[in-house]
Amino acid sequence: MNVRSAQTYWLENQSVPNAARTTPILQPHTSCDVLIMGGGITGALVAYELHRAGIDTVLIDKRTLGRGSTAASTALIQYEIDVPLHQLIQQVGEQDAVLAYKLCLWAIYKLRDIVGRLDTRCGFNQKHSLYYAAKADDIDMLREEYEARAKYGFQVAWLDRQAIKAQFGFDAPGGILSQEAAELDAMDLTQALYRYLIDRGLRVFEETTAEEIDYGFKRARIRTNHDTEIFARKIVYATGYETQQMMQRDQAAYADALKLKSTYALVTEPLANMPEALRRSLIWDTDEPYFYARTARDNRLMLGGEDEWVVDAAERDAMIPQKQEKLLKKINELFPDVEAKPHLTWAGTFAETQDGLPYIGEHERYPHSYFALGFGGNGITFSITAANIIRNLFQNGDCNYGGMFRFGR
Ligand SMILES: Cc1cc2nc3c(=O)[nH]c(=O)nc-3n(C[C@H](O)[C@H](O)[C@H](O)COP(=O)(O)OP(=O)(O)OC[C@H]3O[C@@H](n4cnc5c(N)ncnc54)[C@H](O)[C@@H]3O)c2cc1C
To answer: Mean pLDDT per segment of 10 residues, for the chain of length 409 residues?
Structure first.
């Protein structure tokens, strides 16, 4: 599956060599406790958690590390899920909805802690986040959301039109200002994590595909494209949005619960006059399709959104020029004094679930396997949660909050 357009900002700016250069040749027969399939940001975060717990882990990727959808990510790190908290409470109940939000909040600080152990800062910046109404009709919904978040202890403030004008300099009828959010460079983080883990003994093999999997009685046997075999007590599927195809091929239940769509992102040339508000805060709106903006290295802006229900790669990529125009128009409407010149625009395909929550844990069709599918707008924070759940499942066979992310919920 083609998960993104060929060139993205992170690939263009890769200043580090591929992390796995120093990994050994895959032996004809390799054994491990856990085989992670997929070397994107999810695979890296799961590997980090398992490796630190002393679990013997091997990771394979059919491409090179981080070259799936990770390379397209705009990596806004937020606790806010695609489905607003007050609506998620209606869908899944108060306890699970609040817990899902709190887990994403916890993930922001866990990411800060992880980045602190690595050899680069991975562009990690703690930020505020402004979720603003694109039109007056959205104010009631947003106000309800503000009240729900305040009630459950999230650090939020309500900004009316005057306050948004004063603090952000643009016109919007109202919005929620969250104190807790961040941004990072997903590709840098992925590469830095693999460097860290390979230095500490993680076995990583690129350009290695699982061609045949025999889910035996006590462990799985995975035959690779190099005609080698890996024996693993557990497999972790960190195969991103391509997992749906595998499930459809296997006629596995719930495969159709995932809805694929495409999204667009743009990075500007360095700005002479970056708005101060954007240095402090991510911004995103209630529009459909929605719009968001963050800063990126060298005084650039990264803009995104303009989602479309398109999966075909040619059709998706053909829309890049028109999406570029729309993203630029939006930022110009908000900040007419900013001269935002496009540097690069790209597209990525991603998956949504009905409740905005990921699929994490076991699937009845795949014995000895765990899934780490951080679908929705919060893929990276969900991957942190997935890593934690999977370590718990492996060590204890259970996890207190795994139920709300299960297939078939
Ligand atoms: C444009 C865009 C913007 C985004 N913005 C945000 C954001 O602002 N905030 C946020 O939190 N998230 C965001 N996301 C989502 C986040 O980036 C995803 O969670 C992430 O890209 C998915 O990572 P992954 O590692 O699960 O999948 P991938 O990066 O796709 O990695 C999966 C890997 O599995 C490998 N693979 C697949 N099948 C096999 C196989 N059979 N054998 C071996 N290897 C295999 C692939 O080669 C690939 O490297 C965004 C995504 C996109 C596309």
So the answer is: 88 61 75 97 98 96 92 96 96 96 97 96 96 98 98 98 97 98 95 94 93 92 94 97 87 78 96 95 96 96 95 94 97 95 95 90 94 88 96 89 85
Amino acid 15: pLDDT: 52
pLDDT of residue 376: 75
- Which of 239, 353, 357 should be mutated for ligand 1, with most atoms under 8 A from CB? 239
CA of 350 to the centre of ligand 1 (A): 8
Element holding 131 (H helix, E strand): strand 125-132
pTM check: above 0.90 = yes
Q: Is the dihedral of CA 115, 72, 60, 254 positive or negative?
A: positive
Cα–Cα nearest to 147, from 173, 176, 106, 104: 176
Q: How far apart are CA 193 and CA 155, in angstroms?
A: 30
Positive or negative, the CA dihedral 352, 354, 359, 363 is: negative
At 169, list the tokens.
Answer: 């300099």
Per-residue model confidence (pLDDT) at position 174:
98
Q: Cα–Cα distance between 221 and 215 in angstroms, integer?
A: 7
Which residue type occupies 155? Q
For residues 132 and 161, what is the distance between their CA atoms, to the nearest angstrom?
Answer: 10
Residues at CB less than 6 angstroms from ligand 1: 3, 37-43, 60-63, 67-70, 72-76, 186, 209-210, 238-240, 242, 263, 265, 348, 350, 374, 378-381
Q: What structural domains does the chain harbor? A: 28-121+184-256+354-409 (3.50.50.60), 125-181+259-352 (3.30.9.10)
- How many other C-beta atoms can be found within 10 angstroms of the C-beta atom of residue 41? 30
